[in-house]
Amino acid sequence: MVDEMVENKIVVNIYGEDYPLAGVEDPSQVSKIADFVDSRMKEIAENSRIKARDKVAILSVMSIASELMDKQEEIKKFKVSIDDQFETLLTRLDNVLPAEKSIP
Prior knowledge:
62% of the residues lie in helices and 12% in strands. It has helices at 27-46, 53-96; strands spanning 9-14, 17-22. It has a two-stranded antiparallel ribbon with strand order 1-2.
C-alpha cells in the first residue's frame, strides 16, 4: 500500500510573476519571504535605471546576500564576545570559590 503524500502548496507573486511552490511546511513564512523579495526587487528597480527582471533579481540577491553576510559576521563577533565573557566569569569563579579537595 502506498501512502499518499499531502503537499502544502502556495502561490507567491514576486515582481509581477506567480510562482507555485509545493511541499511548503509553513506557507505564512514562505509568503513573508516572497513579500520581502518582491519588496527588495521593486526597491532596486525604483532606485536604478535597471528594469530587466533578471538583472533586478541578481542585484536583489546580491543585496540580500550582503545583508546576510553582515549579520553572520555580527553573530560571529557576538559569539566570540559571549565566549570571552563566559571564560572571564569562570576564571573569576575559580579565583573566588575554594578549590575542591580530592578524597583519598
